[in-house]
Amino acid sequence: MRRDVFQAIADPTRRAILSLLALQAMTPNALADHFDSSRQAISKHIKILTECQLLKQEQSGREIHYHFNAQKMQEVDIWMEQFRKTWETRFNQLDNLLKNQKNTEL
After folding, report:
1. By CB neighbour count within 10 A (0-12 exposed, 13-18 middle, 19+ buried), where does 52 fall?
2. By the 8 A CB rule, do 45 and 17 touch?
3. What residues have CB less than 8 Å from 49, skipping those under 6 apart?
4. What is the pLDDT of residue 102?
5. 3-state DSSP: the chain helix, strand, coil percent, rounded to 5?
6. pTM of the model as a whole
7. What is the share, in percent, of the chain residues with pLDDT greater than 90?
8. CA distance 43 to 28
9. Distances (CA, A) of 98 to 90, 91, 94
10. Does residue 1 surpass a pLDDT of 90?
11. Is the pLDDT of residue 27 over 80?
12. Which residues contact 7 (CB under 8 A, 6 or more apart)?
């Protein structure tokens, strides 16, 4: 089964891993230190994120450092754009309604 970005970010632990890696590259052990989960569980999350191309690996001697691949998150941004436009329109309508209501009360 081929996973996609949306499946990857559906899990709160994977989102937390992405947040950590957005700040700096880390090894699997360094990542695991931030969680109460086992190292094996964190490795599974890393594997899924890597399969979805949200993480990039960099070998440095014996260690592997994982980097966040922000470009892959564009899929989410493109999908969210349709909703963003709707939300902005509705918020603007609400702002106008509240302004009109405030003006009529004065």
Report:
1. buried
2. yes
3. 8, 14, 17, 18, 55, 66
4. 83
5. 65, 10, 20
6. 0.78
7. 80
8. 7
9. 12, 10, 6
10. no
11. yes
12. 48, 52
